[in-house]
């Protein structure tokens, strides 16, 4: 399940799923004038839909609708496959391991073993090692607290529609930060329709320094994994 059940429970608790995300945009523009006075991310995002009435801000409106649509697709993926966190991690690890030799993988493995992190991989290939490393991180990572802060706090004091858009805004802001900090990882997630779920792991990635450089040395890859697992 890879933490996905916990994420779904968080979303359900805030009525994110119950609001029928496929219809979440309908009727929003009519409610903008009533919500704009409420100062929070959800109200701010809703207020931007007023730009749909003006030609000069049509791009803003279209961009938000695109973000809403991609968030909706990611939520559908979350419900159907239950592997969101694992997929986010494996995408990052696969990128970092791409092109590395058997000897380099062995070096990363040895660094991890010294920290008592053992990767379950039948063969030492980049794909197998990446999946094993992602699994090791998922099993050790405490994803509940970041989700609780991002989801619960944003929605707790707001109306349900504001809560929905507060979450989408958090996800969109997180994805934009990733696009600036690490374009290749962002692109890899975008191609998998996962970039709007990056906010789930962003706090852990920032603490681990996973995005400081686009390419990491063998030891730095091991170091990031150790930090994600909580061994450093």
Architecture overview:
The structure is a single chain. The protein is mainly alpha-helical and 232 residues long. The chain contains 12 helices and no strands. The protein has helices spanning 4-13, 28-35, 41-48, 58-81, 84-97, 102-114, 126-140, 144-156, 160-181, 183-191, 202-208, 218-229. α1 packs parallel to α8 (144-156) and α5 crosses α7. It is elongated.
Topology, please?
Blueprint: H1 4-13, H2 28-35, H3 41-48, H4 58-81, H5 84-97, H6 102-114, H7 126-140, H8 144-156, H9 160-181, H10 183-191, H11 202-208, H12 218-229
Total count of helical runs of at least 4 residues: 12
Report the β-strand fraction as a percent range: under 5%
Radius of gyration: 19 Å
Helix/strand-derived class? Answer: mainly alpha
Number of strands: 0
What is the string of helix and strand elements?
HHHHHHHHHHHH
What is the average per-residue confidence, as pLDDT, rounded to a whole number? 75
Low-confidence stretches: 16-39, 144-159
Termini separation: 26 Å
Report the major sheet: none
Principal-axis shape equals elongated
Percent of residues in helices comes to: 55-70%
Note the main attributes of this structure.
mainly alpha; 0% strand; 232 residues; 12 helices; elongated
A few lines on this structure:
The chain has 232 residues and is mainly alpha-helical.
